[in-house]
Amino acid sequence: MEFNEPAGQNLFDNARLVGKPAARIDGPLKVSGLAPYAYERHDVVEGQLYGYPVGATISHGRILSMDVEAARAAPGVRAVVTTLDIAPLALGMLNVARLFGGDEVQHYHQAIAVVVADSFEQARAAAGLITAEYATGDAADFDLHAAFERLQGSGDPDTLVGDVDTAFRSAAAVVDQMYHTASISHAAMEPHASIVDWSDGERMRVWTSNQMINWTRGSIATTFGIDPELVQLESPYVGGGFGGKLWLRADAVLAAIGSRAAGAPVKLALPRPFVMNNTTHRAATVQRVRLAAASDGRLTGIWHEAASHSLPGGRGENATAQTPYFYATDTMRVKHHIVAMPLPEASDMRAPGEASGHMGLEVAMDELAEALEMDPVQLRIVNDTQVNPSEPSQPFSERNYVACLETGAEAFGWSDRSATPGQRREGQWLIGMGMAGAYRGTPVRPSGARAILENGRLIIETDMTDIGTGSYTVLAQTAAEVMGLTLDEVEMRLGNSLYPVSSGSGGQFGAASSTAGVYAACMALRGEIGERLGYDAPEFSDGLVVSGDSSQALADLQGRFEAVDEMTIGNFQDNYLLATFGAHFAEVAVHIATGETRVRRMVSTIDAGRILNPTTARSQLIGGMTMSIGGVLSEEMALDTGRGYFVNHDLAGYEVAVHADILDQEVIFLDTADAVATPLKAKGVGELGVCGVGAAVANAVYNATGVRVRDFPLTLDRLLGGLPELA
Amino acid sequence: MKAFSFERASSAQAAAARAAEVQGAKFIAGGTNLVDLMKLGIEAPEHLIDVSGLGLDRIEETDEGGLRIGAMVSNTALSADVRIRRDYPVLTRAIAAGASGQLRNKATTGGNLLQRTRCPYFYDTAQACSKRVPGSGCSALTEGAFSRQLGVIGTSDACIATHPSDMAVAMRVLDATIETVTPTGMTRRIPLEEFHLLPGDTPEKETALMPGELITAVTLPAPVGGIQRYHKVRDRASYAFALVSVALIRQPDGSGRVALGGVAPRPWRLAAADAELPNGARAVMARLLDGARPTEETQFKITLAERTLAALLLEE
Question: Are residues A31 and A90 in the same domain?
Fold first, then answer.
């Protein structure tokens, strides 16, 4: 089925299930420990051995030699394979560092060996016996700020509109500030883990934790130079992805190599330090944001220039990603520089670019509001636009940003905020309110599914993944809706490369795209059923298929009906800019003496078309708020600039938010319908949830204290110097 | 993890004797720190002596009007004990500020005192650490190192690690004494202020315990009253080690005692600094942190310690 024009009135406009709250159908499995995660799939293949990785302990250079004799002789060891034993493996999709093979070290904890043993403890002990001699590369420069200073103004702008310099010269108010964000880890609860059976060196079975089944299957084939048809990959449950599991990583590669060497299936989970230094992360950014405005608050110029680190060939963290599209402006100059550094691979993490970019842009907007003596909500309202600011002929398919701002301000009680900072105190705590806007593009990708009606039971198969987002549930709701069934009459089968290729989970395209794919497959199944029954224009409701005076219960249909279809997206969508919007409000308390910051309450208002399931969508949003509180207040991958690695590589040293950090969170969905987006008129919310939340908190800290911090995370040491003298 | 042998001790005396006799032996009780360190290859004992079943899990009143806390009393039980809550509230507050409920259920009083530093370079066997491998140097003291969590005073050119305990900071301000049994069966009493050693040139030597010596109890003197506070400052609201913590006992006349956590290789308290309490936080810290040698990244701890104490003194 092709989606080739904006959706008209359809069954989803009067839905029974889609758009209604539903508890996640996989919830009971998860809370009872029965959902099989990759490392726990003890039953899928007999004779599983344990793999353990060894990582390089220099940031870059060459391995001169490795000593594996002691490891080979250690108890229980079945195989040891070092990176010197095999030629450099080819790079999978969007990988920029080799996952294994050859003597070159490109980053700290790049995998250099895998040990396979009868037990996990034996594998780990033997791995600890392996030593390597290195020729360390020349000292590297890890000073991103200095690199930005050098690069500033160079290169062609990524976006250029009008005469920016003149706009800044004639502006009534100007903000010009530098912002820094730290490198951040996905820090998913479940580390990267795989069981691989490549015992015969021929067919490969992979049980893993991955967001993109088809991409990763292809990457495995590319990496090992084999036919993708020989690879079967399953990932039915994912314990957190956040972009860290979009790509093939070393867990699956090492398990495959270990399996081939040992002639047995091998399971391997990356130890937590490897999650930090072997897998990908969100790169640090340096940003200069300049805003020019007329006295009425209208933006006359936006200048956003940023830099981030990456291994050569990577994409870094483009903090300007949202800037060309967010606000109306007369002129604009946007540029992102990538600075090559031999650090672990920088890649996508939830709202790649935007999560960092909102820290610059939306704090700068707060600063501009203050300079103009204007309310920050009002400043954003006057700069709303219904067309792409960098391409005005292109309208937004639907944009209700102003409604987000107004609804959120009302619900939060924004009118109680004092425009002057440092005015409200409760005991030893300074109280402040802040807000920020949120912008995230919302791509739609082709997505396929198979719908089967067998002896009255509906089965949906698609390689779509559920990374904790609720895919199982929204896809079941969609299928039940289309087929006129109840939710418990649908069996969902996800995350297997044997099933039709879906959008996968990422870029907040998953739910909107894959529900459209399931819709297409179910419509095809309806056609198939109608045809086989000889029903003209069949209708499906209340468990029945009806045509004229004839009707039958689907439960009574004998045999198997099956249809495969894919929703493809016509290029009519190119005429529109598809995006989601939000307004985040936060109230913080900052300790007057210590600068400890606690977020007391938050309200987020979300504009993302039809909300497919308010229960699971709310979970994504409050998850985003939680992740953002960690991101703005405590999360930083601390870089040892002498050695080129992230030092705090475990969950004791890398501080994500804990329960005690999370108090009152409220999510308000505008719940509209974007007919351009998909037949279900839905858009994504996953990435949006981490766009702007941190900036709202940072702006609230300023409102509480009068201390403007522009380096994130906003840890208390950055506040201390500006807090009041104590008697 | 290296293979190891294991035995359950039958008595404290026997445990100490065995520990002195068996090469590479260590005691294990709650295991909340040691087992982690063994998994990471930081500790590699050849033999473990389980001392958790020795009955050292009672809190008894002493003839001097204080309390004798068995070494195996769990952190949870200690912080919840009604006598502790009533008469030594700084200790309850400090323990409750540490770790998580699950860890406090397993962690013991003796083990808490013996936990190792959380310096990230100590925790990474690929890095140099003289605590882990004597004489190997200190990655935390080299150019470009990350030191924000580390110590500012009592440190040395060989080591700037801190002792991570909250409980010990409160015990220090309470003038606790450690009771041990030696391998020859003698009982020894070590004031807590002498228990944790400063690193000097030998950061691997962390306590005054002799080989095989086993902590059997911690005694607290009779209650001293006063307002007792513990403020643990950290980046998130819970489940993090202190950047700085302040234990304060303040008497109605303005006199009192102050100990700091998160800044030194041991709970940090000086009598001369206590004496400055009537003169305010700045005067206390001028004494208490005199001679501090912070890194660029730990400089803030000096300010933070003073402000944290100042806030406690302002509390009604």
Answer: no
Distance from CA of A128 to the nearest CA of B (A): 8
Same domain? A121 vs A219:
yes
* Residue A402, domain CATH: 3.30.365.10
Region of B224 (left: φ > 0; alpha: ψ -120 to 50; beta: rest) is alpha
Calpha distance A474→A492 (Å, rounded): 10
Q: Kindly list the residues from chain A whose CB atom is less than 8 angstroms away from the CB atom of residue B246.
A: none
What confidence category does residue B1 fall into, taking pLDDT thresholds of 50, 70 and 90?
low
B149 contact partners, CB below 8 Å, separation of at least 6: A653, B118, B119, B120, B162, B241, B243, B262
Going by pLDDT thresholds of 50, 70 and 90, the confidence category of residue B2 is confident
| Domain count within chain A | 3
Final residue of a structural domain among A548, A574, A600? A574
- Is residue A298 in some structural domain? no
The answer to whether the Cβ–Cβ distance between A717 and B304 falls below 8 Å is yes
What was the pLDDT predicted at A676? Answer: 98
Q: Does some domain include residue A711? A: yes
Do A57 and B123 lie within an 8 Å CB cutoff?
no
Mean of the per-residue pLDDT values for chain B? 97
Q: Residue A344 pLDDT > 80, yes or no?
A: yes
Same structural domain, A403 and A481: no
Range of the domain at A430: 396-440+578-727
Query: Amino acid letter at A327?
Result: Y
What is the band of B316 on the pLDDT scale with cuts at 50, 70, 90?
A: low
Tokens of A150: 């050098």
pLDDT tens, A32-79?
999 999 999 999 999 999 999 999 999 999 999 999 999 999 999 999
**Same-domain status, A698 and A717:** yes
Closest by Cα among B198, B262, B252 to B230: B262
CB A290 within 8 A of CB A301: yes
Residues of chain A contacting B126 with CB distance shorter than 8 Å: 57
Section B265-271 average pLDDT? 98
- In angstroms, what separates the C-alpha of B246 from chain A's closest C-alpha? 12
Mean of the pLDDT values across residues B67-82?
98
- What pTM does this model have? 0.98
The reply to whether A650 falls in a domain is yes
